[in-house]
Amino acid sequence: MSHAPTPSQTVGPFYGYALPFPGGGEVAPAGHPGTITVHGYVLDGQGDPVPDAIVETWQPAPDGSRTGLPGSMRHDPASGKVIGRNGVDFTGFGRAPTDADGRWAVRTLPPGGVPYISAAVFARGLVHHLFTRVYLPDLLDAEGGAGDALLESLDAERRATLIATRTDPRTYRFDIRLQGEGETVFLEFS
């Protein structure tokens, strides 16, 4: 009996099983008074929600430090599997899966030294994850990003895809459009 070769795969679906961990979107220490929420939807080219994506975030601490605190992840002593955060330390790293409606959320602290949170998107149909930035409008200067090389390099329509909308004093909405009209600006690193 002859078998055809296994077809190549795009990212996933393993990432939905292997990458999420309990409390992945809870970046801020429990009960911290400076916590902000950044949330939104991951949308495909037709504007439909992607229910099985993951949004990974990284950022400096509010004081601008980028080292993070190692050891805040708790592991099961028998299996070594991540079972959550310790709830005390800020590491600057988050990993939030989308729900059935394509919605994701992280609770974090405002980044120091930069006006944005870096993000990567893992989703079905992607050969490689996509990198972008979530700019927080109240951290941008009065000119809407003057001095930020990336924002200055973009026309107003493309720039708008990187700037979150503040929906209340501690909450920001940032939808990620993978392609099509209003596609989020994605970055390439080599």
Automatic annotation (TrEMBL):
What are this entry's molecular-function GO terms? protocatechuate 3,4-dioxygenase activity
Acyltransferase among keywords? no
Q: Quick check: keyword Oxidoreductase in the entry?
A: yes
EC identifiers of the protein: 1.13.11.3
The UniProt entry, under SUPFAM superfamilies, shows: Aromatic compound dioxygenase
User: What UniProt keywords are attached to this protein's entry?
Assistant: Oxidoreductase
Name the InterPro entries on file.
Answer: Intradiol_dOase_core, Intradiol_RC_Dioxygenase, Protocat_dOase_a
Classify the source by domain of life.
Answer: Bacteria
- Name assigned to this protein: Protocatechuate 3,4-dioxygenase subunit alpha
